[in-house]
Design a protein that fits this description.
Length: 636
């Protein structure tokens, strides 16, 4: 059979896709059951809104719950907050609070809590302090009891001292899910932190999650006792996006998979970037929709004057409404179950890797349309099963296999689309099919809770952007798709136009690598355009697809069919790889729902072809006639 290799390649991809779907079933079930997000705010912010609006804290809380708020967070009060009167007690240094001469065993700058007779929550505070700080000393005074902590006052100013008991008690029995935020405290051991946190969890069963606050997790590096306390009580920890908190990763690994992803926008960022209400709403909706974030931690904005309560209530209502329109309900979410990589998924990845490698090798040898022998087919299947087995057993082989599949799939998809320039629509469909079927094998193998919760990073995203153009360029030089071979190009002096193109391509590759997964390098106009596309299409297509990849592919079809610019049209072929690299990379975002990924791929294809067609029209009706007129003037 003259096209035996092509039919074998197609058959292997289809078989791998069926196996990949079988391996994806646990992920699909989890995504169907997990469309729930919680809107959470801090109780101290609720108290601030109550003070400002001249309402009681319960009244403000009822208003916000009616506007879409799901749960509230209560943390530990810092030394600074206690000094400024957050509770009805005395807080300061021993030298300030202890009358008379200073005992020799005490340091004058030690932090101390004065519990006055009859003060609310004195017994709870005393019990907590003695658990968390076992080296504390209790001194009886006429005006109450002085608890001297084994820390200096300066060390406690930013640290969590003890829980905000008034707020916890206010919420007790109301049926509102609570998030507890233990603060980081220097010099406190892991066992002591665990005992203290356990006492709070036992006293307030409404606590449904723990989100450590501060620069480091309380008890770090000895977090095993805290992990044991949380696991025994079934309380998950929240994984804060983009957090640099020391010890957070260690705590998350210990509790995996009892993790709830959390997204927040810091007050400093709101003020520095002047984020409007619409900006904040879009940020939180995008986090839940695109990254499957389960807890949206909201804060009232200080950017505008007027009633913050009304504005914050409107934000909660807008986010809740937008999420509901996208099929995401507001409520308390469940954690993800536990499952591993299916053997079906491993075999799918192995089949795709071998099929792509064999296909590209045949292209370099000009044998892609030839026949395939029985021995070669059996050897390919055997090698696929060996790679599948090793990928299941050796993590490094799994990561390398995934990265190779992402890179080779983008390359083969590009070549499949580019070679069919006489039937461009068929070429586009073939290229997208190769990218999607290969992407499904990656999503199936790595679509486990470990990667979906971003406990581990997939290593093939950036290499899948940079390697395909290089492979395609070598292919084109070897097959003389470009007018010259590699040896001819290297043996002659460079042309200025080629040097300019190399510089542009190198700069573009650097920009793409920097921008991949990083919003810091995205200009403001593009951010606004992205938000417009999100509103219009729900699943925003990637900029690389609609402004670079697919337009370059369409322009290649035009210049190739017209047989013009033979020396320079290679740039369009290299640019086309961005579209298919982006499609494959979409499947490497394992925290994103599969249906959303498929919709994004379709939207990228549609909008990219529209933009490319507009560019092609400009090229055909304006640029090419102008080019030919200029050539005539030069020749004349």
């Amino acid at each position: 059979m003259r096209n035996g290799r092509s039919f074998f390649f197609i058959a292997v991809l289809v078989l791998a896709a069926l196996l990949a779907v079988a391996g994806l079933l646990p992920r699909i079930r989890a995504e169907r059951q997990g469309n729930v997000a919680a809107l959470v705010t801090d109780m101290r912010d609720v108290a601030s809104l109550a003070r400002e609006s001249e309402l009681t804290v319960p009244e403000v809380l009822d208003v916000l719950l009616g506007r879409g708020l799901t749960a509230v967070a209560v943390g530990e009060l810092t030394g600074q907050e206690l000094m400024t009167g957050a509770l009805d007690l005395g807080y300061g240094s021993v030298g300030e609070l202890l009358p008379g001469p200073m005992p020799e065993a005490l340091f004058p700058d030690s932090a101390a809590v004065l519990l006055r007779p009859g003060s609310p929550f004195s017994s709870e505070i005393r019990a907590f302090v003695l658990k968390k700080y076992p080296g504390s000393r209790a001194i009886g005074l006429d005006r109450g009891e002085l608890l001297v902590l084994p820390l200096s006052l300066a060390e406690t100013l930013e640290a969590g001292v003890f829980p905000d008991y008034p707020m916890l008690e206010l919420l007790k029995g109301r049926g509102i899910p609570l998030v507890f935020r233990p603060g980081s405290t220097p010099g406190v051991g892991g066992e002591d932190v665990a005992l203290a946190v356990a006492s709070v969890l036992d006293a307030f069963p409404e606590i449904r999650a723990v989100v450590p606050a501060g620069l480091f997790v309380a008890g770090y590096p000895d977090l095993a006792p805290l992990v044991e306390v949380l696991r025994k009580r079934g309380v998950p920890v929240s994984k804060v996006e983009f957090s640099q908190q020391i010890g957070a990763a260690l705590l998350e690994r210990g509790l995996f998979p009892d993790i709830l992803p959390l997204h927040s926008v810091r007050r400093e960022e709101i003020l520095s970037r002047r984020l409007t209400r619409d900006d904040l709403v879009e940020r939180f909706v995008r986090a839940s929709r695109e990254r499957s974030v389960k807890i949206l931690y909201l804060r009232p904005s200080d950017l505008h004057s007027g009633s913050r309560l009304n504005r914050f209530g409107d934000e909660c209502a807008m986010i809740s409404k937008r999420l509901s329109s996208l099929g995401i309900s507001t409520g308390w979410p469940d954690t993800m179950g536990r499952w591993g990589t299916s053997p079906f998924a491993a075999l799918a990845l192995g089949l795709v890797l071998v099929a792509l490698a064999v296909r590209l090798t045949a292209r370099f040898l000009s044998m892609e349309r030839g026949d395939i022998g029985l021995k070669e087919a059996v050897a390919s299947l055997a090698l696929s099963m060996a790679i599948a087995f090793l990928s299941l057993k050796v993590p490094v082989i799994a990561r390398v296999s995934g990265a190779l599949v992402a890179s080779l799939a983008a390359t083969e998809a590009s070549l499949a689309a580019l070679e069919d320039f006489r039937r461009p629509l068929r070429g586009v469909i073939c290229g997208v099919a190769v990218a999607v079927l290969s992407g499904l094998s990656i999503a199936s193998f790595f679509g486990t809770p470990w990667y979906m919760l971003r406990m581990g990073a997939f290593s093939g995203v950036k290499i899948a952007l940079l390697l395909p153009p290089l492979i395609l360029l070598l292919h084109d030089l070897k097959r003389r798709v470009h007018p010259e071979s590699l040896i001819q190009v290297l043996s002659r002096p460079p042309v200025w136009g080629e040097l300019a193109l190399v510089g542009v391509l190198a700069a573009a590759a650097g920009v793409m690598a920097l921008r991949s997964g990083n919003v810091s390098f995205v200009p403001g106009w593009e951010i606004r355009f992205r938000e417009f596309l999100e509103q219009l299409l729900i699943a925003r297509p990637r900029t690389k697809e609609i402004f670079a990849g697919y337009p370059a592919l369409v322009l290649w079809f035009v210049v190739r069919r017209k047989d013009i610019w033979r020396e320079y049209r290679e740039v369009f072929r290299l640019g086309a790889t961005l579209a298919f690299s982006s499609v494959v990379n979409s499947f490497c975002h394992f925290h994103t729902h599969l249906l959303f990924i498929l919709l994004r791929v379709f939207n990228g294809l549609l909008t990219g072809l529209i933009v490319g067609s507009i560019m092609a029209a400009v090229l055909v009706f304006l640029v090419i006639p102008a080019w030919r007129r200029w050539q005539g003037v030069v020749a004349g």
